[in-house]
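Work Package 3 committed the consortium to producing structural models of liganded targets before the mid-term review. Because experimental data for this complex are still outstanding, the team generated a predictive model from sequence and the ligand definition alone, so that downstream docking and mutagenesis planning could proceed in parallel. The input record is reproduced below exactly as it was submitted to the modelling pipeline, together with the SMILES string for pyridoxal-5'-phosphate.
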Amino acid sequence: MSINEIYTDGVAVSGEHQASHSYSERARRNLWLQMSRMGAYSDAQEIPIIVRGEGTHVYDVNGKKYFDGISGLFTNALGHGRPEFAAAAAESMNNMTFFPIWTYAHPKAIELAEKVASLAPGDLNRVFFTTGGAEANESAWKLARQYHKIRGDTDRYKVISRDIAYHGTTLGALTITSLESYRQPFEPLVPGAVKVPAVNHYRAETHPDDFEAYGLWSAQQIEEALLREGPETVAAVFLEPVQNAGGCFTPPPGYWQQVRAICDRYGVILVSDEVICAFGRLGTWFGGQKYDYVPDIITCAKGITAGYAPLGAMIVSDRLAEPFHEGDVSFQHGFTWAGHPLSATIALTSIGIIERENILDNVTANQEYFQRSLNDLKELPIVGDVRGTGYFWGVELVKDQSTKETWAGDDAERLLRGFVSPEMFRRGLICRSDDRGDPVVQLAPPLISTREDIDFMVGTLRDVFVEAAKRYL
Ligand SMILES: Cc1ncc(COP(=O)(O)O)c(C=O)c1O
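The resulting structure, written out as tokens with the ligand in place, is given here.
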């Protein structure tokens, strides 16, 4: 039996029946893909069906092998098919189905909360579980609002975030998200969203030749927004350590320290959205250890379980938690599945592996090599910028290196969706082409990836960019 037969409707079928029973067609009929133009798929344009994974690779329904260059969706930090996870899951499920952490607690949620608190910077010791990243951000904004209210600061409800940033799609999280095309179909959103510029030094008009000065200017934009709005109306500022949407915008030196000082000056809560960046993506457990700051809240998800189960969390400072641990106050907020014993067990297993196998050292040992290899791509006329850190990189494509002319609208569509994405996939590399800002190709491989893996990814980018330059420049 060929792999095609095995994965066609679960039974071997043939001829016309095989086509009509294909997974792609069945998916088109009943499975609504997330964030996808369903109309783009047809008999001629099948939905890619990924059927299994092994280490840093996945295989499609036809048996073709791909390198998992974006770790699923920034999730699969330790690769696929590690037997420790299956064993831990079996033990957890044999022990207890599920019990909520509403009123009750269970040992795995307690152990994980202790472990996460021990890894988090500063006094971030209180862990509130969710099932994903949007819920974590939703929780953080709500917590900030209730915290201020409890303390009699009743007008603080607004939230400041950066242009192009993505913080999730539930209505609250979407309000913090700044991508117009995601927001516009659902407006009006939650009142109180205030936007400041993204920290995009490649396209900076102010201090284009001085990264540090640009960082101070960027932090000042937050202060100016606060003063414009009235600081007494602002609850929180949400920032990623390295901003994903737009292509891995790294913070200039001093930026986080300035933002911390501004938030302290005006009594605003600083939330570090580390849904992508936490648990090793930057080579540290959290962004604060990489860039030397302590936020009031960290939100995280994705890599916390290395992709083996869904889980998110909001990690809160003792200072913010304190009013909720007195008298009859409670944070009126929660999700049934938060801190599921299976997910908590899986997260503990993942953190254990990262510690035992020195996974963070693997990232820090290879990040410069990764950067150097990508920087070599700048010799291609279509490559404008390379930015990122750890195992989190973006390559911005341009029409002209000297003018930085970008690809927009139909041009970007033709370049990315018409060629770059399908060509990477055809060559066995799953990565991300993104035109939510200027067009970028992103790599965020599993944290276990080696230098040979980096060579494969960068080599594939090179081949595809050479071809793209020939066709489109
Ligand atoms: C920075 C950031 N925040 C929040 C989210 C939302 O996470 P989720 O999809 O788990 O709701 C994402 C998802 O990609 C993200 O990248």
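Reviewers should note the following from the model. The longest strand covers residues 124-130. These observations will guide the Year 2 experiments.
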